[in-house]
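### Sample
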Amino acid sequence: MFAKHYLAEFFGTLILVLFGCGAAVFAGPEIGHTGIAFAFGLAIVTVAYGFGHWSGAHVNPAVTLGVLIAGRMRPQRALGYIVAQCLGAMAGAAIIYLIATGQGGTATQFGQNQYADGALQAALVFEFVATLIFVSMILGVTSRAENALIAGVAIGLTLTAIHLVGIPLTGTSVNPARSLGPALFAGGIALSQLWLFLLAPAAAGVIAGMGQRLLERP
């Protein structure tokens, strides 16, 4: 019954990873952190207006958890969203892998998230706080029907701002699926650090959902 919703989440997350991580992998030296940040932000704007009317364009398990805890969707449907998002991220990362390895030489960068030695605390704090802000903003802006036309732009600009701060710290995740896909192909450090990029955003999404639920109480 919800096949179109799951397909929208799959392709939306694929686009986010392909455009955002792809910009970092293939054009990073030319466009810099600012360009990469806008690539992620513009990808979200594209997905929001292209697929939002089908699934809400979560393309992020942390967002889906926030929506679930806020009482806006059922657990079974939320689980389907998260599975579709993770598969879409893997597919997007696979496309990047095929392009990168098809250029000759050994490819090691696939847009994976990671933090420097000794920077665990900084990475944890940033990913949690940034995701909490991001999901709270999404829940807030989508809580009013009159915001429908501008919601995609607001969400995209927020993600851009988050990337401008976070790229030097962790590469910016705020999205467990976005981190999972590239890490599976990068392996090594990215895979060993993946737990942080799964747990911190997920926890922040849950807390954002709890906060929104409290705010929406009559």
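The longest helix spans residues 3-55. This sample (Aquaporin Z 2) is used throughout the tutorial notebook.
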